[in-house]
Every structure is written in C-alpha cells, then in structure tokens.
Amino acid sequence: MIRAFDTLTNQFDILQKRQENISSNMANVQTPGFQSKQLFQQTLEEVDVFNYQNGGRLNRRNDIGSLVFSNELAGSTLNTERGALQETSRPTDFALGEGYFAVQMPNGEVGYTRNGNFILNNQNQYVTQEGYSVLNQTNQPATLAAPNFRVVTFTNSQNLTSEGDTYYTSDEQPQVVNNPRIYQGYLEQANVQVADEMVAMIQATREFEANQKVLSTTNETLRKAVNDLGRF
Q: What confidence tens digit (pLDDT) does each residue in 69-110 have?
C-alpha cells in the first residue's frame, strides 16, 4: 500500500517536470532563436516479486513474477531545426542559415545562441539584448565596421547545455563555419510547434487526473484497512 504512494509521488514529479517544460516552450513562442526542448521518460527496470509461502512449512521462496513500480525521466532532446525567418528590416538583426553566434558570457565563458536580435553599444560593437559582446572570427567583439561574426556548429548539438535566455554552452570543441549564411534584417523565430505543445499539455493534464483518481482510491483503501480491519 505504501509502495503505491511512492509510485504515485514519483509519477506526479515526472508530470510536473513535463508540464514545466511545456510551459517554458509555450512562454518562448515569441522569443527569437528559441529552440524547444522535449522530455522523454521510460519505465524502471522490472524487479522480482516473491514471498516465502512455498513448501510444507511455508518457509520456502515462492517466485510470483516481476513488477515495474514506476517511470523515470530518461533525458531530453533539443529541437535544433531552424525556425521561420521574419523580416524586420532592422540593420542590427541577423539570422543564421546554420550554426550559432558566439558571444562572451558574463563569467568569461563563450556562449552560443541563434538569437540575432543585436544592438550597438557606444563603441559601435554588436552586443545582445543582455549586453553580451558578440564575437568575430578572431574572438574579439564584432563591430559595425567589420562584424565578421564567429559562427560555429557542433558535431552533436544535443550535448549543448542550456544557460537560459536562448544561450548555450558546450564542452565540445565547436567547428567554425568559414562562410556562414547570415541574413541581415531578419530574425529567426522560435521553432516551437504550438499545436504539438497543446496536445502534450492536454495529455499531461489527463495523466494528472488519472493519477489523482488512483491516489484517491489508494487513500480510501488504506483508510478502510486502518479503521475498519483494525477493529477485528
């Protein structure tokens, strides 16, 4: 009986994380360069179920079978498909055909983003909306006179670590794109598929409801076991 509560608690935790991820994707539908993320889960390994009710003295192991108690989050996948390009006609907006812009993060680490919604600082250097310097091919701040943006790709973009606000870092050595396709006056829109996210939200909501019913039934069974059977 207590195992049922543990299983349900674990399932509620998984559903909450899935719902948080869906909410994050939906909240960034209008964020340029945003890449959606999907979580996937798997069942835990089966465990043997047995008792000692075998034999003449009921003291021998009796194998009943196996049982899967719950699920777990197995990981996530980043949607690296390019979003639609929207013309803005602003000279400080840029979109990429492939790869990521390199930017200088506040901690000194190099970050990567597909959000080309840049502005110019008082030194005519391109910076992000958060004020991070956009780097050129020599890892120096890109300037209005000679932007020459540093654009990179990764062998496995699934290993990118999200730092929030469309920024990523990676332990992998990136490959520099020598002649990147850069579209000035355009921004890449988020690649979030709203219809898919809505379906995922409905599915998660229904799973919440189903688990709540199981929780209610389990709680009622436990109540009867404690209050009613305890009288005998």
A: 778 888 899 999 999 999 999 999 999 999 999 999 999 999
The model carries a pTM of: 0.81
219: left (phi over 0), alpha (psi -120 to 50) or beta: alpha
Number of domains in the chain: 2
Place of tokens 């190099």: 110
- Residue 160 structural domain: 85-188
Q: Is 38 exposed, middle or buried (0-12, 13-18, 19+ CB in 10 A)?
A: middle
User: Does residue 125 lie within any of the structural domains?
Assistant: yes
pLDDT digits (tens, 9 = 90+) for 17-72: 999 999 999 999 999 999 999 998 888 788 888 888 888 788 888 888 887 777 88
Confirm if 115 and 92 have CB atoms less than 8 A apart. Answer: no
**Cα–Cα distance, 21 to 93 (Å, whole number):** 28
What single string gives the DSSP state of each residue in 220-231? HHHHHHHHTGGG
- Separation CA 101–CA 45 (nearest Å): 42
Both 126 and 204 in one domain: the answer is: no
Do 135 and 112 share a domain, yes or no? yes
For the chain, how far is it from start to end, CA to CA, in angstroms? 20
What is the Cα–Cα distance from 147 to 126, expressed in whole angstroms?
Answer: 8
